[in-house]
Design a protein that fits this description.
Chain lengths: ~120, ~900
């Protein structure tokens, strides 16, 4: 397992979790379901990555947790965004937009370069 | 506060570990159950649903582990574990731990002790109001490297005309004789201060009052004094009725107006003044004192100022320069010149006379600290090495089990840091004792008492810094070296070790240098001891046994020559009449005194163009029978007698050395020479050359003159040659002087043997040096033995297989012995060779205290070398013997 790879995944996962929590507090299971749902079943979050990420985000102060009861009356730990978490989500979203736009440009440019120039 | 929740969270993860763990488990369990429910809703059987959920979730403990590892406190937890493990492994080898601990603790203790005194002398602010604004005003002159103060009239002008200071104060110190009814007269040091002294510092009186605004203004008008709290306690037993009482200063009546507070000890940080007198009373303190005080060029006082808020040093300096220039223009004849300086008080310690003393002492001190600590650390590092190599198997095993090099390193470092930290704590305690001993020692040797050591945060910070440094120094090299475990060879246990040197160059270097250092220190100790043996009456030039001395100062009490002569006459007569006294005499000369009187001498007929043509010589004015009473050896001529008085021919007794220098190859008797100036003195006696100012000095000329022919105002010492214990006569002598003049204190009352042994310029340095060197030498010897033993037994154990094979192949035990001993012997001889060269160099440059004594150090060196080699061989012998007992069959079977 190389470090760079996890870093990249982690960063992305962090953003996805923050996004999932944007609307309402949620427990871990709920977050994994939500991410799967909004991504049209493309992104499957492994529990082995989800929980370390949750604890890390809490350690960073971006989310906070509270015990509560779930829809079917089960005790569960609910995570919610903090103010700094919200700011973090905004900046990460912006960064992501910039990054993906840039990558798109590169990919298009690469196609363009393959065709003969005038 | 956005960091608050995060901070709270972190604290919780640190201190409420179990709660966090429980939370985590519950949370994951809830997750599993939810998944299970979803699975069941999708139509799985209960069992299937649970297994599927578990499968999906993955390894529960693994996830928890990942969570824990990324928690912000892992490093702390690991550190704690490292230290706990280090503590356990140190406890398992108490011998090593004790030696290492003691070595480091001694090193750190010595440094802490010295630092606590330095701290007090140089870093503590004066215990007065607003110490930060205090500055010293002085002049740098081209004639001297010392700073010069300002004379009293110049000080008054500065005080009146310089606007940069809120106030200026001036002071000096002077020896005084203080007597009071019911108290033993005492010779002590007074701070002679301007009237505003106490208000300048903002110090209140502890009892009575201090100097009032009108006092200390008019010359000779205020015979009053203030006692320091310590002096009041020591000499007046803290008697409150002393305030308002009349006491006697140099024979003049003074009123004690008050007692200074205990915290205030004077102007110089770390040095205490006992008595405070107005500077206007200088007339009572020295001959022509009143005139000297009022001269514009004569007797400079030390001047201190308080900067007004917002005024810079440069501004103040410029203002002082302007005023000084004006004074110089007004009194061109009296001007001594020089560039005015305004310096922060703290930078002028310990004495405003010295410039830039503090940076220098700091550098010297840092150097010494570094050296002492380095020696201790080198020794401990070697021990650590020894220990680490013994633990190679452990390291290999841990490495094989997946410990990284960094983890192994960290483990060893944790041990060294733990050791260093503990040693530092022990060192603080040792340092505390050491400092109080040092303070007592220094106080007894210098006129002004050191106030003491300061134990504040600076000392603790210093000790902590030393612990860190020591931890790093002792741990780093061994850790880096040992943690480089080569799994392949170590696990196989196969490779035949080459030799000690090639396997462990660092340790071999340590052992060699230890042998070398040990030799140097032993040689030093030996030379010191031999020098001590060398000190005999023949060498010193007089008999030190059964001799009592006691000093008094008639000059301070204003005795004129007539009165002084009568006093001396009576004192001698009564002293000779004391039971048990064989002879009594008087002299201004005291061998090995802190302040020796010197004079210049020139043989008659020699042309003198300047000081370079004169001979500077120790000199004394002495009463009749001095030579005989002191036990000096009269080689030619006669001793002084009562006939050598005023009006009689002026005569002198010289020593052999002087005779040889002045009249080589001629009979010195009847020759004439000038001492200090005309008239010429006739040589009537020649004594054997001795030692006069320092025990270690080179042979020096020496000249004596009859006291009766040249009275001067320096202190006189009474010498009594006794039949029994000279110390037994001390009360008699005190009573005798009391009866003659109750206000006259006796000081330096001690036996000559004691004076010789404890004198700073006599044998004290030698004795201390010998004791320290011998101790250090033995200590080094122990370390050498342990180091060699370690290296040799390690190498021998590495070669067990080889030795077994050799024995199996019919090698003799002697061969094996030689094989193993050879390694140790090589290291020892290398160390002895290097040490010998170093000792030779050291003996050459050993300070003057050994001059004339260092001859014949080669037997010492030979003895030390033999001793060291012998002991080293013994240290190697034990592992070598063990190696010969190797059972070849067992070794070969074990393969």
């Amino acid at each position: 397992m190389t470090k760079e790879k996890t870093d990249l995944l982690q960063g992305t996962l962090d953003m996805l979790i923050l996004k999932a929590l944007q609307l309402e507090p949620m427990h871990g299971f709920g977050i994994s379901v939500r991410i799967r749902q909004i991504s049209d079943e493309v992104l499957q979050v492994e529990q082995g990555s989800l929980y370390p990420a949750l604890y890390r985000l809490e350690d960073q102060g971006w989310i906070k947790s509270e015990w509560g009861t779930s829809d079917n009356n089960r005790k569960a730990k609910f995570y919610s965004l903090t103010a700094s978490g919200r700011r973090q989500l905004e900046s990460e979203t912006a960064n992501w937009a910039k990054l993906s736009a840039a990558i798109n440009l590169v990919l298009k440019g690469a196609r363009g370069a393959a065709s003969p120039k005038l | 506060m956005s960091w608050m929740p995060q901070f709270k969270y972190r604290l919780r993860t640190l201190f409420r570990r179990s709660v966090v763990e429980r939370d985590m488990a519950a949370e994951m369990r809830a997750h599993l159950e939810m998944q299970e429910q979803v699975n069941r809703a999708a139509g799985m059987s209960p069992d299937e649903a649970r297994f599927a959920a578990q499968r999906q979730f993955g390894h529960l403990d693994g996830i928890k582990e990942t969570v824990r590892d990324q928690c912000g406190w892992v490093w702390l937890e690991q550190l704690w574990k490292d230290f706990r493990f280090a503590a356990r492994s140190l406890r398992k080898s108490p011998g090593f731990t004790a030696v290492a601990l003691l070595t480091l603790a001694l090193g750190i203790g010595v440094n802490t002790a010295v630092f606590s005194i330095i701290n007090n002398l140089f870093f503590q602010p004066l215990p007065v109001r607003d110490p930060g604004s205090l500055v010293v005003v002085a002049a740098r002159t081209p004639v001297s490297s010392l700073l010069r103060g300002y004379e009293y009239p110049n000080y008054l002008d500065l005080r009146a005309q310089v606007d940069a200071f809120s106030d200026l104060m001036a002071y000096s110190t002077a020896p005084i004789d203080l007597a009071a009814s019911g108290v033993e007269p005492d010779r002590t040091y007074a701070a002679v201060v301007t009237g505003n002294f106490f208000s300048f510092f903002g110090v209140p009186a502890a009892r009575g009052r201090l100097f009032l605004p009108g006092e200390g203004q008019e010359i000779g008008a205020d015979p009053i004094l203030v006692l320091s709290n310590a002096y009041w306690q020591q000499h007046f037993g803290g008697d409150p009725s002393v305030v308002g009482r009349s006491v006697n200063v140099n024979g003049h009546p003074y009123i004690v107006v008050g007692i200074a507070p205990a915290t205030f000890t004077g102007t110089q940080a770390g040095l205490s003044a006992n008595v405070f007198l107005p500077v206007t009373m200088t007339g009572d303190l020295m001959t022509n004192g009143a005139q000297l005080l009022q001269a514009r060029a004569g007797m400079p006082l030390k001047v201190m100022g308080r900067l007004k808020p917002g005024v810079s040093l440069d501004q103040a300096q410029a203002e002082v320069a302007t005023v000084v220039e004006r004074i110089a223009r007004t009194y061109p004849k009296e001007s001594v010149g020089g560039t005015p300086l305004v310096i922060r008080e703290q930078r002028t310690r310990p004495d405003p006379g010295f410039t830039e003393f503090m940076p220098l002492i700091s550098k010297v001190f840092m150097g010494l600290v570094g050296l002492v600590l380095l020696i201790a650390c080198a020794n401990v590092a070697n021990l650590m090495f020894l220990r680490a190599t013994v633990r190679r198997r452990e390291m290999t095993l841990r490495s094989a089990l997946g410990a990284s090099r960094w983890q192994l390193c960290r483990q060893l470092l944790a041990e060294s840091f733990l050791l260093a930290a503990t040693a530092s704590a022990v060192g603080l305690v040792l340092g505390y004792w050491g400092a109080s001993w040092l303070v007592r020692f220094v106080s007894s040797a210098t006129p002004l008492a050191l106030v003491g050591a300061s134990w504040d945060w600076r000392v603790f910070l210093f000790a902590a810094a030393m612990a860190l440094l020591a931890g790093l120094l002792t741990g780093l090299m061994p850790a880096l070296k040992v943690s480089r475990v080569d799994l392949q060879t170590s696990l196989k246990q196969g490779g035949v070790a080459l030799s000690a040197a090639s396997r462990h160059p660092f340790r071999s270097i340590l052992v060699v240098s230890q042998v070398a250092v040990s030799l140097v220190v032993l040689v030093c100790g030996g030379v010191f001891l031999r020098s001590l043996q060398h000190v005999s009456p023949q060498f010193l030039g007089f008999r030190t046994d059964h001799l009592l001395m006691a000093t008094f100062d008639l000059g301070l009490h204003g005795y004129n020559p007539d009165r002084a002569g009568r006093f001396q006459q009576q004192l001698l007569e009564k002293a000779r009449a004391l039971p048990g006294v064989e002879a009594a005499t008087l002299g201004t000369f005291v061998p090995f005194a802190l302040y020796s009187s010197l004079n210049v001498a020139v043989p008659e007929g020699k042309t003198v163009r300047g000081i370079q043509d004169m001979t500077v010589t120790p000199y004394g004015l002495v009463a009749p029978d001095f030579v005989q009473a002191m036990g000096m050896t009269l080689l030619r001529g006669r001793d002084f007698s009562t006939q050598d008085k005023t009006g009689a021919p002026m005569v002198a007794i010289i020593n052999e050395e002087m005779a040889a220098q002045f009249w080589p190859g001629q009979d010195p008797l009847g020759k004439r020479c000038y001492v200090g100036g005309p008239p010429a003195l006739e040589v009537v006696g020649v004594v054997r050359t001795g030692r006069y100012m320092m025990v270690g000095e080179a042979a020096s000329p020496f000249i004596l003159q009859p006291l009766a022919q040249s009275y001067d105002k320096t202190p006189l010492t009474l010498y009594l040659r006794t039949q029994g214990d000279p110390a037994a006569l001390i009360p008699d002598v005190r009573n005798l002087v009391q009866a003659l003049d109750p206000a006259l204190p006796l000081y330096n009352v001690e036996t000559m043997d004691r004076h010789l042994n404890d004198g700073l310029l006599a044998l004290l340095p030698l004795r201390t040096g010998a004791a320290l060197a011998v101790l250090q030498g033995l200590f080094a010897l122990v370390l050498v033995v342990m180091g060699l033993y370690g290296v040799v037994s390690f190498v021998a154990s590495q070669r067990t297989r080889e030795i077994g094979i050799r024995l199996a192949l019919d090698a003799q035990k002697g061969d094996v012995l030689r094989l193993v001993l050879g390694d140790g012997l090589k290291l020892t001889l290398a160390g002895v060779a290097i040490g010998a060269v170093l000792s030779l160099a050291l003996i050459r440059v050993l300070p003057r205290i050994l001059y004339g004594l260092a001859a014949g150090s080669s037997p010492v060196m030979l003895a030390a070398g033999l001793l060291l080699t012998g002991i080293a061989l013994l240290a190697c012998w034990i592992p070598a013997r063990r190696a010969t007992r190797v059972n070849p069959v067992e070794i070969l079977k074990a393969e």
